Amino acid sequence: MSRAGPTQARSMPTWRYALGMFGLSIPINTVRVTTLLFYVDILGLDVRAYGAVMAVYAVIDAIDNPVLGHLSDRTRSRWGRRRPWLVVGSVLLAAAFVGYFFVPSTVDGLALVAWFAVFAILTEAADSMYAANYNALLPELFPAEHERAGANSLRQAFQLLAFAIALAATPFLTTSLFGSDDSPDGFRTTALLYAGIALVALLFMALGVREDPARVVEDHSGFITGARTILRNPHFWLVGVATACYLVPLAFVLAGVQLYVKYSLGLPVAYSLWLIGSSIAIAAAGLPAWTALVRRRGAPFAWRLAYMFLAAGFVPFYFADSLIQAVLGLGVVAIGWSGLLATNDLIQARVLDEDVRRHGQHREGLFLSAFGIFSRLTGATAGIGLGSLGFLFGYYSGAEPGPDPGLAFRVAVAVYPFVIALVGVVLSLLIRIPDAGVHQPAAHAPQLTR
To answer: What is the pLDDT of residues 218-241, one digit of tens each?
Structure first.
């Protein structure tokens, strides 16, 4: 690799970096929002098996995330540390995503559980491989917080665009255009379409990466030493748990919204298009305002305010008995979601900056992958929560919906998320956030951390 100054690491246009989030969000969020409908309600997978698989996955993912991040930090190649992993992760994610929905018609019972487990784990592992390297590039390519705020806002806008395509359009594509409410055929066609779009976007971003040569040759501590340092950092635990308190509620909504529409509102599943689509539109429209607030008042202030909106919105969402009321309630949640999209990665980057100031090492891959454990636990937590609908309300599958599936899914997408988001509000108010930047701020610099 040729030597170059720091500007080489930032030769990639911001929009090209942000496009990677577009490709990453389409497959993984399609999986999260359609699993209950596809595997449980249509194919008949027992919801208890669904919860068990997600719990097992969480254990596997808790191991592979930091390992992948550490391996990325220590990779030495003519293409840099991150690009080889990004290219391989792109191909694996597209292939696993297609396999996830191409369940043979002869597969049922334990074979269906095994198919679901294998492809759920493969899809999430490939997503972890790409995401660990992609996220590690943010603090490297954009060292100042105002630059990070702009880059992060743009990539979150791409993520919301992917949500609009992958999540809001999916119910229509799978159950109306390409299939029906009780057929898996539409999911297969949609999976092929989405996999092609995602692969192009992921590879286009990956092949344009140009890293800082100084970081590529930097000497790193071993995995055990690095992991021990991270685990002893109190900000890692506090910010990590707070992150989970924003992602877990959204995981509940994404996993259960189609059955909430079907059972709680008594409407066709395709109507979830309007519910999800309106929330995405609100979140996207709010990103510029939240980014401006970050630049004016600092990331910590905006982060805390966003948690308050997130928790508050689940109250009217629970009591909604029409599509309009549900849209309004989830709209308040979406305002908080928008704020957390704009700020949470900046808060994590501050923790990483503090680690660099204290220890003098750039271990973005390991540190952010360790943070990723909290993100990956969201699926398992939501899976366990949804699995509880069986013994609490008698909902086990579409064939065994229990006496009141409407109440079951109100609890799943509103009560559980509200309680967890409320914990996030409390944590955000108690945590003292470090300063941004890898250099110690001057004593006279204005403090925006509280």
So the answer is: 555 677 777 788 888 899 999 999
Which amino acid, 435?
A: D
How far is Cα 82 from Cα 101, in angstroms, rounded to an integer?
29
> Measuring CA to CA, how many Å separate 418 from each of 167, 252, 354, 415, 446?
22, 10, 31, 5, 35
Which stretches of 298-415 are DSSP H helices?
Answer: 299-319, 323-359, 364-387, 389-393, 405-410
Contacts of 182 (CB under 8 A, 6+ apart): 42
Q: What is the pLDDT of residue 119?
A: 93
Q: Which is nearest to 82 in space by CA: 211, 266, 179, 183?
A: 211
Contact 337, 281 (CB under 8 A): no
d(CA 198, CA 345): 22
CA separation for the pair 123, 108 (Å, rounded): 20
* Residue that is written with structure tokens 């403090």 in the block: 447
The CA-to-CA distance between both ends of the chain, in Å, stands at: 43
Separation in Å, CA 275 to CA 258, 270, 389: 9, 10, 23
Count CA atoms within 13 Å of residue 62 on its CB side. 11
Task: Read off the pLDDT of residues 179-204 as tens digits, 9 standing for 90 and up.
Answer: 676 777 888 899 999 999 999 999 99
- Select from 312, 143, 154, 311 the least CA-distant residue to 242: 311
> Is the backbone of residue 444 left (phi > 0), alpha (psi -120 to 50) or beta?
alpha
Separation of alpha carbons 253 and 230, rounded Å: 31
The residue extents of the domains of the chain are: 10-430
For residue 229 the two structure tokens come to 């340092």
**255: pLDDT strictly greater than 70:** yes
Contacts of 36 (CB under 8 A, 6+ apart): 47, 50, 255, 256, 258, 259, 386
Q: What residues have CB less than 8 Å from 407, skipping those under 6 apart? A: 264, 393
Residues 252, 408: contact at Cβ < 8 Å?
A: no
Q: Which residues of 334-369 are buried (b: 16+ CB within 10 A; e: fewer)?
A: bbbbbbbbbbbbbbbbbbbbbbbeeeebbbbbbbbb
CB of 265 closer than 8 Å to CB of 326? yes
How far is the C-alpha of 105 from the C-alpha of 361, rounded, in Å?
Answer: 52
Encoding tokens for residue 232?
A: 């002893």
User: Which CATH fold topology does 10-430 show?
Assistant: Growth Hormone; Chain: A; (1.20.1250)
pTM to 2 decimal places: 0.73
Please identify which residue in the block is written with the tokens 């509940």.
252
